Fold this protein.
Amino acid sequence: MYSIKKLKNLIDIDLLQSIQNRLAEITGLAFNIVDFRGEPMNEYSNFCDFCKEMRSTKEGMKLCYEANAHAGLEAAIRQKPYVFKCPAGLVDVATPIIINNHYIGAIFFGQVRTNNEEINIIKESKDCMKLIKKNSKLKKYYDETKFIDYKKIESIHSLVSIFINQLVEKSELELIKEEANFNNIKLNRELQVNKNLKKELLISNLKLLQTPINLNFELNILNSISNLAVIENAPRVKEMSHYLADLIRYSSKNIGCEVTLEEDIENIITYLKVQSIRFGNRIKYKINIDENIKDIKILPMVLLSFIEYSITKGLAPKIEGGTIYINGEVLENDAIITIEDDGIGISENELFHILNGIYNEKTIGANIYGINDMLVNCYGEKYRVQIASRDNIGTIIRIKFPLNK
């Protein structure tokens, strides 16, 4: 996470404050910007009387900060605005501010009531209800909060997202440019040392591809740990930290190397355990790998990237969750790995982007296209990944590895 001092070098806080004030003036809603801990980064704009009164108490302030921290992390994981109800039942929207895959904070707006009853509430709080009962002003102010049609809330968070994306674009492009220059220098040195040009190019591409994969992957896990620490008073942080250490150790030591399928599956199981802790019974998994292919050598993190995409894009957005199935079998001279989920599926437009590499920024979809391209370079055109998906039914991903390279 970035410090507030460093944030001011990456993003214009004063400009963000000015935009926030203007949006509050135009919409009549409350706006504020918080860091990853849920603590304010600037001055509030147009807060309602209920929230002012709530934050005037130590207990109320703590509840608000925890709710903002939780919602901001959820928005960062989803990488889009997150609509939620605070512990008091008022609707807020958290829009994440993400620079170069680092979640640095979120801009919040809302403090209203709406006509959508399906919005998730951030941990219903008995303490919040006690505060309202003890303080007659809070009950009065709550009854006076605005009621806004949900469609208007959706329109406003789309507008806020546009402002945020434009504001961070310059900072993100500069950071990506610096990273690209560094990687180019590193690649040139490696090519000079190794006479086998084709082999070194493949290894370098693997390193360059794994870097953004690992950053996105580790960010999601760290957000989950932070989420648990804030919301659940850290009863399972030790367990998740242990899994995270194993995952980071595995990914860092195997960059540019090959591992056995069995080793990679063990790492995948660790990752799935982390997701099971985060999502509870919403995420289930079943693994069945033929014993005859467990010793084949593959590139590490390849399967995990597709599994992460399946959970993030397919199962996590589904209210009741679902199951991911991982199967491995022998077909003629190849090992076939099938990753199947019963999630919400991938739209035709997004699937077209994934298969054709139409991305302007570093995303999970872009990484999947890069890995697919790398598999073709390593093994041949017949090893291109196959993806089939249907809305609200699920997605099937089929990956092949040669038994004898």
